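Extended Data, panel c. Modelled sequence:
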Amino acid sequence: MPDENVAAIPSRAGSVAVSVLFADPSRGLGEEAPAPACFRDLNLDQIVAAAMAPKPDYHLVPIFHTALADIEDIRYRQAVFRDAERLEVRAALDAFAEGMQALRANRAQIDKVRYKLEQQAWFLDGVLLYDAAVRGFVEAFTAVELHSAGLGAFRDYLAAYAGSSRFTALAAAAAGLKRDLAAISYCVYLIGSHVHVAPQKSQPDFAEEVLDVFSKFKQADAKDHSVKLPDRGAMNHIEASILDLVAQLYPETFGRLDAFATAEADFMDTTIATFDREVQFYLAWLDHVAPVRRQGLPFCYPEVSDGKAVHGEAVFDLALAHKLAGQGDTVVTNDFALAGSERIVVVTGPNQGGKTTFARMLGQLHYLAALGCPVPGRSATLHLFDHIFTHFERPEIAASERSKLEDDLLRMRDILGLATPASLVILNEIFTSTTLADAVWLSREVMTRLVDLDVLAVWVTFIDELASFGDTVVSMVGGVDPLDTALRTFQLERRPADGLAYAMALAERHGLTYRILKERIP
């Protein structure tokens, strides 16, 4: 625990914070936060799993499950990210993390060993590791310039804590005990089947005497035949029994060790432990986007607002970008913009032309922005949502008593009942299981409700009529190569829907036209 004269680190709002780098003390560490319902549809589950996989010990996934609801909190996190991106700051954070990882390994070893004195020895080493990590971090952090309120406040807290009487007394006591234990020397006597331990006095060093006797016969340096015994990392029962006898020879020193281990069992400061975990959220995300950046793709800190005017320049689907980066390919970027009374993007065009990817991307951008993360794209202005609602096509379940159309209608009813003007709605190919006439009628009813709600939405659809629904709707169309309409450019253009699916070009490419099939069938 910190010295009583060292105040707990304040949040941005000035209250005592459970969280150190998240600005919202009420959120804490998000231990129980479940994944939002939109995660699977938007492939955010894949993104988060991949980003957090290298750091399983920190249990960071729940942090990603809680989007922020306050613009200032988002800016607070963005500032921490900007600091952490600077090489000198990152080096200091990584060095501290390595020290704390060594401490955690030490604590894990204590749980594995069986003997009390051995546990106390590991405990003493752990305190010294903690002292080195804290002092090293203070020195490194003092030498760098920080701009974020989060890291700046923690640096001030850390400096005060490292200079407190509580911490200096802890470090001094640990160092003193380590010196006193290292100074202990003893002799082990094997008498028959018994082991005796006694203080080492002025006994001669028989190894030196033997070497001196045979030195006259020495002609050259002999080959080293010494064998390195394996370090099992734990004492056996014989070693533990000898150590118990040594402790009886030096009761004062080992008594102080016992008292120290008991009194300082909870030596780690809770704010430092919290920082150690929370900062990994920032570092894990920066590590996750690094290989995509090396592909030449941009990331930016979006402007997040309550307004409905949104835009994105050179934005892309991060899950797809990671997959393609692993294959040596680069994802295609896109632009979008809504201004004035525009609220809904209707996406049409050929199959496999990037329409669903575009819808997922827009949802990813808004969610990641609400975490305060840098998002994929050159620049972006995004809406601070209260909820993201998604409706993506799902396979029909044979055992279900509901038809696919009924399931679509019930899901859509729930979305319209819960959505507010601050929500983001993402629809992908709904009402595909009914007739075109019914699909058009149902879609127009849903569109009317969305327009009345004044909600931001993206709707991927095969119904071109929706793209010209009114002034609130913007039409975007998937592109094809003008020289080969079977090739998709994966770039969406803002233009009226043209009703062209280019299905014949695909069928021709794969040898599935009527003419080709007729020629192949005898």
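The first helix runs from residue 44 to 52. This feature is highlighted in the accompanying rendering.
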